[in-house]
Amino acid sequence: MLALDVCRNAAACGLDLSVAAMGGGTLEDEFKNSGVPYFRLNRSFPLDLPEILKLRKIITKNDIDIVHGHQAVEGLHAYVASIGTRTKRVLTFHGHFPDAKNRETLKFLVPRVDANIVCSGGLKTWLVDQGISSAANFDIVYNGVDATRLSYVGPSIKEEIGVSEGSLLVGMVANFYPAERKDQLTLCRAFVRVAQQKPDVHLLLVGRVLEGAEDKFDECKSTCAEAGLSKRAHFLGFREDTTRIFSGLDINVLSSFHEGLPISLLEAMLSKTPSIVSDIEPHMEVSEKGRYAFTFRTGDASDLAEKILSLVRDRAQTEKLGGDAFEFAKETFSIEAHIASLKAVYQRIS
């Protein structure tokens, strides 16, 4: 979504951009219609020589100044494809857990590209701990969101799931991963505690269940079912209409063990939806140490429940939190601010 927002706003921000994608996906048609040249590659192997040659042709034919990769394997293809050209290389880290193969690929690429970008200071600290980062060529560029796509007019998500508009809807937008990244279970356990005091509270979980994470998903459902809350816990799976989701949530929760700088949290802030986040370093960075989002002790369901109830009891505080977060995010995490920071990196290495 970040890449798509960049494509849609590139021309207006003075960025001459093309996209080469090594696969399809649910947003492919939107990339094709985003206003930038779109090239489709079809990588079949970890290091696919025919696709490297196609990418090299794109680079040379279109006189590309900078190739910017967003994943280890794609970055490696861009590196090899640009060998012997004047093209500079940039690699962005978004916060995922690389497996052993990707970790070694990143260690190879980091000192050989012209700039590495991390989306938060917290992620940079984590990379140093993982033995991947090098302070010499790392820049922090905060993720950005195109606020113009966040306005929503239409039936509310509460109406869709059969919840009255007066009921409290607490939710989290995040995929279920097999690795220790997101923590929906702590939110489910907190929901059980909140429901004991608030009979009109409902839980909404949005996100794919990735292969290997089925047990995590099942445990979340069983936690709610064992408390007799199955009808008040709504698991919607993958949704593209996150704008509708955030416009209907009363409280957004992002309970995570590990993040780079989550787009979903920025979308919630720019939707004026008050948020509660786990106190990992990137969340503390985004929230200005709790100024623009409530924070709770990571993995502590009791603490999270108390933070939810605190917002429920003080609606004025809730509204102020959402409004203040919106103003902060508009200045700090807009797509315009993101592209301006990218351009500064590009100009420095050109």
Strand order of the largest sheet: 9-8-7-10-11-12
CATH superfamily of the largest domain: Glycogen Phosphorylase B
Largest sheet: 6 strands, parallel
CATH architecture of the largest domain: 3-Layer(aba) Sandwich
From the 3D structure, determine the CATH topology of the largest domain: Rossmann fold
CATH class of the largest domain: Alpha Beta
Structural class: alpha/beta
SS element count, helices: 15
**Number of strand segments:** 12
Helix content: 40-55%
Distance N to C terminus: 26 Å
SSE arrangement, N to C: HEHEHEHEHEHEHEHEHEHEHEHEHHH
The total tally of domains equals 2
Beta-strand content estimate: 5-15%
The overall average pLDDT, rounded, is: 94
| Poorly predicted ranges | none
Radius of gyration: 21 Å
| Outline | elongated
Which characteristics define this entry?
single chain, 350 residues, alpha/beta, Rossmann fold, six-stranded parallel sheet, four-stranded parallel sheet, elongated
Question: In a few lines, what is going on in this structure?
Answer:
The protein is an alpha/beta fold and 350 residues long.
